[in-house]
């Protein structure tokens, strides 16, 4: 395998670890996922561990994301001209007891810029750098709502509406109707559309003149009742105000 192909497979492995950041991944699983022999996967994982992009706990055969991923997320955060919004996100997680997420659009996907888990043991896991679809997540829908209408329409036309659960939106007309509803009520919802047992609520954020951003609360479905949604929405709105104040202060 040439150097270019090896690099490509290494990046595929890193992406796979990002997508499965809630658990460790074994060598055989990784090899099957990216289509390389186990011996090749082992060498590539060893390289990622040596450079801190991946990590393996002592005595474990499972690989996870390494600390370099967090440093890269911080660098991306800085490069995109955003202030340090972690404190606002941490406050949101503490206040609601749920996972709080800051995301943006890259290509036809969302990417998590920051993730803060709630204080409870049972919650939704995620990590900075994690990517996912736009059409069936609250973060993704809120990001689509944040885009200028022309760009939003262009992006919707390009999206492959992959079905992940029986609740996933798979029709472009239905997606447009869902986004109109989200914009009219001020928040986006995803009810077990990407992952069964998970409900998320998100709002767009106006943090600068160019990018699209969203803040999201993600929680086990049994904890997101219809009665609780207004309170979660209000918590997001107050977080938005705090982030906007931080953003404006950083540009003065």
UniProtKB/TrEMBL annotation:
Q: Which positions carry the signal peptide feature in this UniProt record?
A: none
Q: Output one GO BP term.
A: negative regulation of DNA-templated transcription
| Domain HTH iclR-type as annotated: residue spans | 4-67
Residue ranges constituting the IclR-ED domain according to the UniProt record: 61-252
What keywords sit in the KW lines? DNA-binding, Transcription, Transcription regulation
* Claim: DNA-binding is one of the keywords in the record: yes
Q: Does the keyword DNA-binding apply?
A: yes
Q: SUPFAM superfamilies attached here?
A: GAF domain-like, Winged helix' DNA-binding domain
This one is known as IclR family transcriptional regulator
A Pfam cross-reference name: HTH_IclR
Q: Name one GO molecular function term.
A: DNA binding
């Amino acid at each position: 395998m040439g150097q270019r192909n090896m690099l490509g497979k290494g990046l595929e492995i890193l992406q796979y670890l990002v997508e499965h950041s809630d658990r460790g991944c074994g060598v055989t699983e990784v090899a099957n996922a990216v289509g390389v022999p186990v011996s090749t996967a082992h060498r590539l994982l060893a390289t990622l561990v040596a450079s801190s992009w991946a990590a393996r706990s002592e005595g474990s055969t499972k690989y996870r994301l390494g600390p370099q991923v967090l440093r890269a997320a911080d660098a991306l955060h800085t490069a995109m001209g955003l202030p340090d919004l972690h404190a606002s996100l941490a406050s949101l997680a503490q206040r609601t007891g749920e996972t709080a997420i800051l995301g943006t659009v890259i290509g036809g996907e969302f990417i998590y810029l920051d993730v803060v888990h709630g204080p409870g043991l049972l919650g939704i896991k995620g990590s900075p750098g994690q990517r996912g679809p736009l059409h069936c997540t609250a973060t993704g829908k809120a990001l689509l709502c944040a885009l200028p209408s022309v760009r939003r329409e262009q992006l919707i036309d390009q999206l492959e509406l992959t079905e992940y659960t029986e609740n996933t939106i798979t029709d472009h007309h239905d997606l447009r109707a869902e986004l109109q509803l989200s914009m009219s009520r001020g928040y986006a919802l995803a009810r077990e559309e990407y992952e069964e047992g998970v409900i998320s609520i998100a709002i767009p954020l106006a943090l600068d003149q160019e990018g699209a951003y969203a803040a999201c609360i993600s929680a086990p479905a049994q904890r997101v009742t219809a009665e609780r949604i207004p309170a979660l929405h209000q918590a997001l709105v107050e977080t938005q105000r705090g982030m906007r104040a931080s953003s404006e202060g950083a540009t003065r």
